Amino acid sequence: MRRLVVILVCLVACSAPTTPDGPRASIRVSPRSATINVGGSLQLSAATLDAAGDSTGLAAVTWSSSTSSVASVSSDGVATGLVPGVTMVVATTSDGPQDSAQITVVAQACNDIAHATHLQGTATFTYTYSTLLNSVQYVGNDSATMTFTANALGGGPSGQLLWIGSSTGLGAEHETRTDHVSGDVKTLTGSGALVVSDINLSHVIIAVDLSTCAYTLEGNPYIDLVESPDPGDLGPSWIGWFRTAPTPLGSGSHSASLATHSVGWLGPNYAGASGWYVPLGFSSDYFSDGAPDDGSLGTATITYSVAGAP
Length: 310
Hints:
Blueprint: H1 2-14, E1 26-30, E2 33-37, E3 41-43, E4 45-49, E5 55-58, E6 62-65, E7 71-73, E8 78-81, E9 85-92, E10 98-106, H2 108-114, E11 118-133, E12 136-155, E13 161-179, E14 185-193, E15 203-209, E16 214-219, E17 226-228, E18 238-243, E19 247-248, E20 254-260, H3 263-269, E21 276-282, H4 284-287, E22 299-308
Parallel strand pairs: 2-10, 20-21
Antiparallel strand pairs: 1-4, 3-8, 4-5, 6-9, 7-8, 9-10, 11-12, 11-22, 12-13, 13-14, 13-15, 14-17, 15-16, 16-18, 16-19, 18-21, 20-22
């Protein structure tokens, strides 16, 4: 009988339910993201969160950097920028939970410009072409000299910082149409001010990628001519859209050749492409008889610079 009681007690004890572990606390790193200069430092912290997501105090964590060549992190959570780039600084508790912050490291000159309220610059743009179409030779040389001040707009859809502003300056054209059958030669020359009207005309967009400390400059030269030999006849001379390749901030003046494309190319390729020019239209009086305006021929060049406004 005593053996039976012992066995029953053992069965009851062995089948007793165990108490489940409570939910493990999570942690949150603060700040969630930050930009620091090369050689600069930032104190990070990790807070313990309860099941409701409320902080219950500082967490004991081990710190690490996913790309330690970009930024190091000390045992007490001080991140130090080493070279330009992006890294994730990770905090891990002894029982597993972890969280991270994205740290972008930039050169100081880049950081100063990238956080300026205004950016200013210049762009000297030319587009030359020569093509034969239906026994007619078209030769052109258009140019624009642009000066601009752009105002900070904030973050763009791809995480870039944006500035938008209008440009002022002058444009000019010198174009010749030679009919090789009739021998007729027409020449159109003129110059005029850039037309500033709404966002699509004579405006610039500056986009800065802090992870690479590079910017792209987009411009829309729209020229309103005082034409000769027939002043005032159906201008403007031409309108187009250019975009530079990514260019290091604070690196002075640059010169580049831009690939020319048709209007149809612009839509599907705008977001991902760089270093291009798309002619959008020319003087209707001069080109109404069939000169190509799709950008498939010609050479576009640009000299440009961007800097922080004083």
